[in-house]
Amino acid sequence: MALEIKVLDYGDIELESSFLVLGRNCGRTARVYTYGFLILGGQYPIVVDTGFRENAIMETLGMRGLAFHDNIVESQLARHGVKPGDVRYICHTHLHIDHAGQDDHFSMNTTVVVNRREMECSVSGLMHPQYPKPDIMHLIERLHTPGALRFEDLELSGPVELIPGVTLEAANAHTEGSMNIHVETAEGRATICGDVIYDIQNQIVEPFHQISLNEPQVTGNHAGSKRAEKAAIKKLLNGSKFLLPVHDKPAKVENGQIVGRLDMAVPGPVSQTVPRRNWFPV
Fold it and tell me: Is residue 278 in some structural domain?
């Protein structure tokens, strides 16, 4: 079944640049998108990630939220003729502060899907305050409401098909419980990859301070090893036609390399072509 993905714009965040790409522009402020995704074409709509709760909550991490009325999830869904009550599942790449902040805009009839390991991390205190109290308390309410929360154990079970054409898989990077959402489109597999990738240009196209062939740069914010994050990025490049991170524009992939950038829909027109990197003298 060919599905399509619409990009939801939840607003921007200002933060320290090296948070995005390890060691790059330390001490300088960067402004990034915060995206969610709407999967259409199946029996019912599916939302992936819901952004941050409010601008003020980002201050707990020393960041600045820049979201307005047009960025709330109801407004973003309405652009595509969808209401919160139409959504059957919310899938979370992970539960950080800028990914699960508007879950409480949906009724308990919408099931939130998370990797169980991610829920465990959210209540362990290991990355406090990246998992803020109001977001996690809402998920606890769902935990005690029949059908409102669904756990997967992806590191143990392997990939799980949520509906035909949508598969959940452990990301094995960024956080211990992060997951990727693979979507089968008319033009090939698209993968919503959360924060496994922050900055496509400076991590993959022109990887900052990397000289080895096909060696991506890691982010400045990962709970696991740098080797695991590099491997997770390489796996995405070798397995998907499109990559959709939460804080950067979608990318088109051919033969393991980024060849173009898209805007607010996948499949969709390529808005920017990316020349292949010339590694060898000619």
Answer: no
